[in-house]
Amino acid sequence: MPTASDHAPTLAPYASLDPQAVLEALYAAGFDADGRLLQLNSYENRVWMAHLEDGSAVVAKFYRPNRWTDAQIAEEHALTAELAEADLPVVTPLALQPRTPDLVLCTPTLGRFTTPDGGTFRLAVTERRVGHAPELEHPETLARLGRLLGRVHAVGRRGRFEHRRTLNSQTYGHAARQRLLDSGTVHADTESSWLRASAQALELIDQLTARLDGVRSFRLHGDCHPGNLLWRDEGQHSGPNLVDFDDCCTGPAVQDLWMLLPGEREATDAALHHLLDGYRDFTPFDDRELLLIEPLRTLRMIHHSAWIAERWSDPAFPIGFPWFDSPSYWQQQATELNEQVERMRDLLG
Fold first, then answer.
1. Is residue 200 pLDDT above 80, yes or no?
2. Catalytic residue among 6, 244, 246, 256
3. Domains, the chain, ranges and CATH?
4. How many CA atoms lie within 13 Å of 53's alpha carbon, on the beta-carbon side?
């Protein structure tokens, strides 16, 4: 299996990726930018919108070095292509056309660009697609999102990932917790309370998932929160559009549903009804998966903390998350994990 061959992580992994390097990478990949660039919000990767000389615009995504292998990114691109072929509103990477030796193809849609100072970055380019956040308080919006995700999952069930990770208590929970412990990140003043809460939470997650033996896992978007949904009011691709498959994985269907739900119990029940009403128009849903919502929420909490800790040497992270190394953050995490423990105990009965 191919492995990531980018340079080893540095204190500033994107230091050599300045606007001039972005323009040179686009030219090397076959795109004639007119010089106008806008850096888009992304902590994990570096993403730039570029206007082209023909009046159109594209989005260039530079993958974080050493996060994914070429094989894993190829599976991401293949899934979006498969969804697009099924006439689903997703954004697929464009074919690259190398013009210079600075860009070498890994796949037809993934290139490895070398900057003048020797930095290497894997690059994908997509069309620009704009829209606004979905209005999740509207029942018809939820039903349409449910239909979209039902169609996405119908395609996802047709194949499987060989290289992408699987979402479960080991990968997102136990392993993430161990990485935090190994890094010494948890603040000493609150370490014992966080250790106790996280251990209890993971034990309950394991008990709940053991009850759900037979729930099917398949290819998912994996990070389906409102920020990864663009709603277009008119024109081509009107309605919901699903973007950013960077975290696509193998997991249960409800992973792509629960982050669209409000926090209040009554509102959650109503939103679930509308989401699943649309979803079931295209794909069956196993109601037992509803028991996984709180475990999945808990795993996301632990995994998120581990993600920040692993990126702390990137200068963007201390700036973006200044509270992460404070006692108050870890005390809050311990408190929220204890709340999740109580919710999951209630589910176990």
1. yes
2. 244
3. 19-127 (3.30.200.70), 139-348 (1.10.510.10)
4. 8
